[in-house]
Design a protein that fits this description.
- By secondary structure, the chain is of the alpha/beta class.
- The protein has 6 helices and 7 strands, in the order αββαββαβααββα.
- The longest helix is centred in the N-terminal third of the chain and has 30 residues.
- The chain is globular, with a radius of gyration of 21 Å.
Length: 231
Amino acid sequence: MSIRSRIFAATYDRMMAKGEKQGLRELRQRLIAQADGRVIEIGGGTGHNLAHYPAEVTALTVTEPEPPMVRRLQRHAAERAPLATVLRAPAEDLPFEDDSFDTAVSTLVLCGVDDQQRALRELIRVLRPGGRLLFLEHVRSDDVRLARRQNRVNWLNQFMVGCDCNRPTLESIREAGFVPDQIEHGEFPAAPSFVRPLIIGSATAPKRVDTDTAERSAGTINLPGPNALST
């Protein structure tokens, strides 16, 4: 456990307070209201989303990889969502069976995971086919000048808050196999310009290919008919 992770966990709520007050909380609430069934939230942090889950959620599991965050998350879950299960686990290696969840939630997480594509593939694996990913993420700007600035200051953003400010996350979601349903582009409230571009939306998990059937089809041999000549 690093000193940096302990300091980040201890200061996270204060760091986010202004943005939450100026609109981020409402964005979370609007997004989380769409969750239903069995839900997994990755990178739960200190639990800012916990109070917003609707009655349609039948089971809630929240994962978080950093021990200092997990301790705060557990305390807040006991207050705001006592039936939630809190587990320490990275988004890239989720300890669940395939098809375990109906909804996955990621808010301000995909910017900071070590391997974005692996994390997204894990979400597809644990979601049932047709399940939904709900996401709220700050992303690389479509504006060329701002995108260049994001590239220049990304090292600083990594050092200060441990995430990338220039990830093309919507493109990554598509590349992983999710099908975006509805996407809104906005701005991260009370944030520096280089982390301000924001997307909020949902995407559907694809149907899985039956690998056994696919392999059998690929290996089909056409046998000669009854009129074929033999030597």
